[in-house]
Amino acid sequence: MAKQSVESKKPHAHYIDQEETDESVRKELVTHNFGGLLSVPLIAKKRMVGVLNCFVPPRIRFRQQEIRLIKGFANQAAIAVDNARLHGMIRFKMNELGTLFEVSKAVTSTLQLTRVLEEIVYHVRTILNAEACVLMLKEGNHLKVKAIKGLEPEQHKESISVGEGPAGVAVKTGQTL
Length: 177
Prior knowledge:
Radius of gyration: 28 Å
Distance between the termini: 41 Å
Helix content: 40-55%
């Protein structure tokens, strides 16, 4: 229903008794006992963030004054949506940086390799919000589990050959899979 407004980035009114109203829009309006629809795009910083659809009962038309008012409201709503998105991104980045700081602090606070690897696995799992994380180190032609979180040791092979499975292929090719 909002396709025309999204494509043109302008408000559009559709009424069940207008010839130019798309048949699928008309059918949807009639199904829900509406007589008209005003679709107003939500645009923030020249970027489409959504659309506001307003419905009226049969035989009611949107007046220009109402359309201007709804456009103003849509502009404010678009800015609010964009600000909320930016705020969420900032919070995510701050959490990510905080976790990276904690990883750096933990890794440099000890010379015990086992403890360092356990800290890395713990924090990587936290950053990615992952169910499980396994860190394996290459020893000759094999990868050996050195730290594991979220899995019981018996749920993961203790050693795999380089080239075997996703981890082995990643080591063999040097590519992230």
